């Protein structure tokens, strides 16, 4: 299936997509790394989905549009489609598993946030204080470290506070991609 373009034309269903989470505190580089990974994955012929947890209220539609008026009037679900895209707006939150069920046609789903979920995770560490993430999340597979936390990371590992995980510099997108390629796709 590698190399297929979206939408996938296939006589048999894809297995569930590979799900990979990127977690970190605010401004740790999650979105930037996801964008870099999406571009690399697309260059290699994969179809990619993304899911993002937003702790704030967000607005996908614009006041005055017909679909906005539908939502404003109280529609629980509003679908809109055009020649090149489709969107379904729901007036309620959905769990990550529910969102993923709607992405079976892609090869890989990159998830930003949802720290409590149990999918494989890249942990982004911007400062020494961010090491606490390693104690509270499940299924970490690698650590992505900013320069200002690099020395503290290596000091902690030498002092016996060992985190037996591969570690990459935030600027090492090629190495991160190679690691993920060798383990997941």
DSSP helix fraction = 25-40%
Strand order of the largest sheet: 2-5-1-6-7-8
Q: How much beta, percentage-wise?
A: 15-25%
Distance between the termini: 11 Å
Would you tell me the structural class of the helices and strands?
Answer: alpha/beta
Q: What is the number of helical segments per DSSP (H or I, 4+ residues)?
A: 6
Instruction: Tell how many strands the DSSP assignment holds.
Output: 8
Major sheet characteristics: 6 strands, parallel
Q: pLDDT below 50 for ≥5 consecutive residues: which ranges? A: 1-14
Oligomer: single chain
The general outline is elongated
Summarize the helix and strand pattern as letters.
EHEHEEHEEHEHEH
Query: How much is the radius of gyration in Å?
Result: 19 Å
Please give the structural blueprint.
Blueprint: E1 18-24, H1 30-43, E2 48-52, H2 66-73, E3 77-81, E4 86-90, H3 96-101, E5 108-112, E6 121-125, H4 133-136, E7 140-145, H5 147-158, E8 167-169, H6 173-183
Parallel strand pairs: 1-5, 1-6, 2-5, 6-7, 7-8
Antiparallel strand pairs: 3-4
Give a quick summary of the entry.
The chain is α/β, with parallel strands linked by helices. The chain is 30% helix and 22% strand. Helix 4 (133-136) links the parallel strand 6 and strand 7.
């Amino acid at each position: 299936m590698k190399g297929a373009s979206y939408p996938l034309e296939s006589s048999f269903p894809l297995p569930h997509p590979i799900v990979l989470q990127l977690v970190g505190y605010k401004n740790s580089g999650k979105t930037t790394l996801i964008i870099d990974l999406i571009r690399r994955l697309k260059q290699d012929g994969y179809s990619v989905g993304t899911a993002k947890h937003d702790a704030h209220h967000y607005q996908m539609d614009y006041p005055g549009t017909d679909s906005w008026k539908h939502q404003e009037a109280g529609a629980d679900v509003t679908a809109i489609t055009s020649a090149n895209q489709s969107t379904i707006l729901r007036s309620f939150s959905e769990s990550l598993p529910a969102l993923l069920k709607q992405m079976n046609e892609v090869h890989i789903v990159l998830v930003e946030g949802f720290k409590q979920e149990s999918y494989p995770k890249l942990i982004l560490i911007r400062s020494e204080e961010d090491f606490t993430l390693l104690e509270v999340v499940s299924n970490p597979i690698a650590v992505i470290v900013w320069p200002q936390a690099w020395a503290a990371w290596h000091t902690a590992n030498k002092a016996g506070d060992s985190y037996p995980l591969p570690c990459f510099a935030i600027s090492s997108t090629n190495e991160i991609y190679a690691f993920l390629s060798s383990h997941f796709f």
